[in-house]
Amino acid sequence: MSNKQLGLTLAFVTAIISGISIFINKLAVGIIQPPVTFTFSKNLIAGLFFISVILFSKKYHQIRQFDKKQFLKLFFVGLIGGSLPFYLYFTGLEQVSAINAAMIHKTLAVGVILFTFISTKKIVSLQLLGSLVLILLGNFLVGGFSGFKFSSAEFMILFATVLWAIENMISKQILIDIDPVILAASRLFVGSLILIPFVSSPKVAPNTNITQLAVYLSTIILLVFYNFTWYQSLKRISVITATVVLSLSTIITNILSAVFITHNLSQISLFQTILLILGAILLTKFSLKSTQQKDFSASLVQ
Fold it and tell me: What is the DSSP string of 246-289?
């Protein structure tokens, strides 16, 4: 398996993790209140896990060689990737359905494409755009705009998604010379420290049982795996390709919601699945055929 094939595989794995994670986080967000305390606690634990990996694997020797510019970039990722967007996303998620949250979050690829064009003036391939259109159309079939209320909570999730789009572009550049595990540790641990002034005493929901606690712990495990596979993928393939693949995760959230929440898996879900699969096939064929470039601007779009 080539480096690019591995990156693409990891992106698909991340999409699966993301689809499960959005559904599970929707269930867990009410267990610990307020939402900022919930996201702070799980991000801190996940961040400490990555720090322990750095210490155990002796990757900290790499950190000693960082210059001020690299430290500043890591801090910036923690700020716009690991703190404010998590606060916005989970505050909004408390009031928005898992499906709607997933659909808003999966506009991430659109934001990345727009920011890439602004920063590099490079036009994205028609094949890549075609795969994105198929995937977004598949997501739109879930209910279009009918389920949206255009509420402040939905706009909070949208703003969080914009910040994550910017963070992913910066992370792609950082990953040229920084280990993905170090970047993940910085994003989660530094981000959680920035959230401290906004954290209040945790309020555990009454009658919380072992099952609910297991759901909460699963959000931490999913967060660890998401950050690990995502940054490993982002290091190997373009940020646009990675975020387009991530858009496929909505189908996982939809299926889980249909099975456990609405108990209704409509026929239109079959058509949606077909569109998502076609988009994935087109994306995979394009990604594996495209040649890998060494300069940063080309790595964003190829």
Answer: HGGGHHHHHHHHIIIII----THHHHHHHHHHHHHHHHHHHHHH
pTM exceeds cut of 0.90: no
Cα(131)–Cα(173) distance, integer angstroms:
24
What are residue 204's DSSP bridge partners? 32
Whether residue 34 has a cis bond before it, omega within 30° of 0: yes
Q: What DSSP assignment string belongs to 113-169?
A: HHHHHHHH-PPPPHHHHHHHHHHHHHHHTTTTTTT----HHHHHHHHHHHHHHHHHH
| Structure-block tokens of residue 287 | 């990604």
String of DSSP letters for 47-77? HHHHHHHHHHHTTHHHHTT--HHHHHHHHHH
When divided into structural domains, the chain yields a total of 1
Instruction: Give the up-direction half-sphere exposure of residue 19: CA atoms within 13 A in the CB hemisphere.
Output: 20
**What SS3 class is residue 31?**
coil
Give per-10-residue mean pLDDT for the chain (302 aa).
Answer: 89 94 87 86 96 92 92 95 94 83 81 81 72 73 59 91 94 94 97 92 72 90 97 93 84 77 65 72 66 44 51
What does the alpha-carbon distance between residue 216 and residue 200 come to, in Å, rounded to a whole number? Answer: 18
DSSP helix/strand/coil, 292? coil
Residues 6+ apart with CB under 8 A from 170: 73, 76, 77, 80, 81
Rounded to whole angstroms, how far apart are CA atoms 144 and 142? 6
Which secondary structure element, helix H or strand E, spans residue 203, and what is its range?
Answer: strand 203-204
Burial of residue 30 (CB within 10 Å: 0-12, 13-18, 19+) is: middle
Using N-to-C axis directions, what is the helix angle for 210-236 and 3-28, rounded to 10°?
Answer: 150
Give dist(CA 124, CA 22) in Å, integer.
28
